Amino acid sequence: MLHKIINIFKNKSNEKILSDSIKEIHSQIPQDFGGGCSHHKALLMGLVISEFNLKNSADIGVYRGRSLFPQAIAHKLHTKGLVYGIDPYSNEAAVQNDRPDLQEQLDEFITVTDFQKLYDDVSNLIKKNEYQNNCVLVRKKSSQAAIDFKASNTKFGLVHIDGNHDTKFVMEDVANYFPLLDDKSFIVLDDISWDSVQPAFTLLNKEMIFIDKLINETNDFALFGKGISNEEILLLKEIFKKIKKK
Ligand SMILES: C[S@@+](CC[C@H](N)C(=O)[O-])C[C@H]1O[C@@H](n2cnc3c(N)ncnc32)[C@H](O)[C@@H]1O
């Protein structure tokens, strides 16, 4: 009994340290049209990584790092593992055509964005915050990176899919990274309300266990798991419920 009570307090303070560290790194990284992982999604990924002691995670679509660094923090504080940040940082790869209602803004974004500077900024944040042991940038398209991961037999406990949102690429990400998942593992799929992402959402619903989703002004994502027990599903639903209340 005493052991259980001590664990509750330990988990609470661990969560607070994780949450505060994520707030601190997020205060250094602006949100804008190109990206902007919320505190909710960041904390959820951090908690899943630490609760399940996931050693490797993948962040597909790094941009300024708002979804990458929370994973690095969870690895640094808890698992001593590594997040791979996968992004080609190229104007060509960032072209998206499946949102006709946003096409003008998307095209303008490609024209004005300096991807080399974004890459340099994220690299500098890794050094400044001493995340080198828990975070590595892979400057490649996710499809190319997946070939390398397969060759090196690298597997992931968590994959966050937030790269190119056109259907072709999101479906490619699901197809390429699903075989790279550990037996017990998770996918966080972003922008699930986009028509172009819907087919990936439907596919993951069939292939994995749907835990929950959060859609509001600042969030649009779902969490899926595989290889998890009923007890773990309940734990994840509880974590998600807590996240929704924040
Ligand atoms: C929506 S942003 C990511 C936002 C980021 N996850 C965050 O929370 O702030 C999409 C990113 O995907 C990257 N991207 C585009 N095509 C890609 C591909 N084939 N593989 C990996 N990343 C890609 C873009 O360069 C861009 O930085």
UniProtKB/TrEMBL annotation:
<dbReference type="GO" id="GO:0008168">
    <property type="term" value="F:methyltransferase activity"/>
</dbReference>
<keyword id="KW-0489">Methyltransferase</keyword>
<protein>
    <submittedName>
        <fullName>Class I SAM-dependent methyltransferase</fullName>
        <ecNumber>2.1.1.-</ecNumber>
    </submittedName>
</protein>
<keyword id="KW-0808">Transferase</keyword>
<dbReference type="InterPro" id="IPR029063">
    <property type="entry name" value="SAM-dependent_MTases_sf"/>
</dbReference>
<dbReference type="GO" id="GO:0032259">
    <property type="term" value="P:methylation"/>
</dbReference>
<dbReference type="Pfam" id="PF13578">
    <property type="entry name" value="Methyltransf_24"/>
</dbReference>
